[in-house]
Design the sequence.
């Protein structure tokens, strides 16, 4: 009889990548991955503590999981444990036991021992055959692959360097082997992730070289980057880096965090490059990569952010024409430089500025999506929405959310049949046959909810 585990993940894509790897390893050793904690003998919570809000969510979720599965062994991994230890509340494990209850607490430096711990705790007799990639196990059609961890710091608002430790990279050969395994399992898309993805170094192999190796030595249909800093691209050589996009399998989407588009405030934040250097990288990316979409992070209400800074910020964000703005309201994080700064911005002001930025973000997104009407893309179908006529959703390479219907009236615009299956049987394919498939479509109609309706081309 197999042992049963439930894994919940909060926070960044790096956490998702690590959880995916654990799921694959446990499945290969005979563990059953449960959709709910009530079904599991072991419940793993992969935590986040980057902000006070995230840390609060970690503690609240752990309590809920303990209530739902009181007989299970509970394991807490990651940044929440390190944050407790950093504050000096005894050890991370003791502090969490005191505040939350009895759990096994594994900080970032030890969470790699999770699979070994569960193996010792009592794995199943005999391994079951893994029948899906880690991405499938977690209910996805893509997998996040961790290639780097840690950060050497610099940003005055960020606690991550103290939680994740120094920069370090996964050996390139190991990365290739993991992607090849995912490819064998039938996965179509891999997302490379890291705390500082652009800081990847394995000997002389940097991120640009790693991308070249993956494209040359795997047949993965889609390769995507999670988030990369402008300074890291410049350090690797912008022209060399962007040349990798000559291979169409590399998705034309970049997430380039700007945090502030005010030159003075960006410098005050301790960002590693100037606003002018950031804009130069952005301009080169758009010149080199056809159909590129660029999203960004914006930190609102950093200490001493004046009305003039804010107006400059909004003006430059609009000029840079991002496809999406991810907004974060600044909150002081104990242990950071910014938490000790005077001139903290009032909460009411932060809320008003977040609302302004959100309105700008919606407008920029609509402009970007409107510019893509009529263009042709390959979409990866991921999810089915229940309706009288089944409708499938997925994403283009440049990260546009699309939807299309399936119908027996195959000649009509907007229908998305599985052509290969229809050629055999003449029947509309079932749910599982369309998930995780790639298909060429034309973007034909932009809905009010920012989803594109599509027309299938093959």
Sequence:
């Amino acid at each position: 009889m197999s042992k049963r585990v439930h894994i919940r993940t909060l926070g960044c894509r790096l956490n998702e990548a690590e959880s995916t790897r654990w799921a694959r390893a446990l499945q290969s050793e005979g563990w059953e991955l449960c959709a709910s904690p009530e079904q599991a003998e072991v419940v793993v919570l992969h935590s986040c503590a980057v902000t006070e809000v995230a840390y609060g969510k970690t503690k609240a979720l752990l309590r809920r999981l303990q209530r739902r599965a009181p007989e299970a062994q509970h394991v807490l991994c990651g940044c929440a444990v390190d944050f407790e230890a950093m504050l000096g509340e005894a050890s991370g494990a003791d502090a969490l036991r005191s505040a939350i209850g009895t759990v096994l607490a594994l900080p970032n430096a030890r969470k790699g021992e999770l699979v070994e711990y569960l193996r010792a705790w009592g794995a199943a007799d005999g391994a079951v055959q893994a029948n899906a990639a880690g991405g499938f196990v977690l209910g996805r059609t893509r997998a996040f692959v961790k290639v780097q961890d840690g950060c050497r710091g610099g940003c005055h608002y960020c606690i991550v360097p103290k939680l994740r430790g120094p920069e370090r990279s996964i050996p390139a050969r190991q990365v290739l082997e993991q992607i090849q395994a995912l490819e064998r399992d039938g996965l179509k898309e891999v997302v490379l992730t890291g705390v500082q993805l652009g800081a990847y170094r394995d000997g002389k192999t940097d991120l640009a070289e790693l991308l070249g190796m993956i494209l040359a030595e795997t047949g993965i249909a889609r390769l995507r980057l999670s988030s990369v800093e402008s300074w890291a691209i410049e350090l690797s050589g912008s022209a060399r880096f962007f040349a990798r996009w000559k291979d169409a399998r590399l998705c034309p989407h970049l997430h380039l965090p700007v945090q502030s588009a005010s030159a003075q405030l960006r410098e005050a934040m301790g960002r590693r490059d100037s606003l002018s250097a950031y804009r130069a990288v952005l301009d080169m990316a758009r010149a080199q990569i056809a159909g590129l979409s660029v999203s960004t992070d914006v930190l609102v209400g950093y200490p001493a952010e004046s009305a003039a800074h804010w107006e400059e910020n909004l003006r430059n964000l609009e000029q840079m024409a991002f496809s999406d703005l991810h907004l974060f309201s600044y909150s002081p994080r104990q242990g950071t430089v910014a938490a000790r700064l005077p001139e903290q911005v009032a909460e009411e002001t932060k809320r008003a500025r977040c609302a302004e930025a959100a309105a700008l973000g919606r407008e920029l997104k609509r402009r970007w999506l409107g510019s893509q009407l009529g263009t042709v893309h390959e979409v990866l179908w991921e999810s089915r929405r229940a309706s009288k006529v089944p409708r499938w959703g997925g994403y283009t390479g440049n990260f546009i959310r699309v939807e299309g219907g399936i119908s027996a009236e195959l000649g009509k615009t907007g229908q998305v049949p599985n052509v290969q299956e229809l050629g055999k049987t003449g029947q509309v394919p079932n749910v599982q046959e369309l998930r995780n498939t790639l298909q060429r479509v034309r973007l034909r109609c932009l809905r009010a909810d920012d989803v594109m309706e599509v027309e299938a081309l093959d």
About this structure: The two ends are 45 Å apart (CA to CA). The first strand starts at residue 4 and ends at 9. Confidence is low (pLDDT under 50) at residues 89-101, 123-139, 407-432. The CA atoms of residues 253 and 398 lie 5 Å apart.
